[in-house]
Design brief:
The structure is a single chain. The chain is mainly α. It has one domain. It contains four helices and no strands. The longest helix is centred in the C-terminal third of the chain and has 16 residues.
Length: 76
């Protein structure tokens, strides 16, 4: 039987991510106060370069694929 640590080492991370980055993100959110979390959420909604849209869950795979294609085309 594998330990959680062994499973993490075998996990594949998205491009640009590694175990250190995942740990830093987890630490950030685990140490964040409720007030800081609310402020961060509010700041996200005020960012005019981003949009928040509600969609049915079954559309998420198609939307993620479109976003990935868009991101790739911008890198080229």
């Amino acid at each position: 039987m594998k330990t959680k640590r062994q499973e993490m080492k075998q996990s594949k991370f998205p491009p640009g991510w590694d175990e250190g980055r995942v740990r830093r993100v987890l630490d950030h959110y685990e140490q964040q106060t409720e007030e800081e979390a609310v402020a961060e959420d509010e700041a996200t909604f005020e960012d005019r370069t981003q949009a928040v849209v509600e969609v049915p869950r079954e559309l998420l795979p198609a939307i993620r694929e479109l976003i990935a294609k868009h991101t790739e085309s911008r890198r080229a």
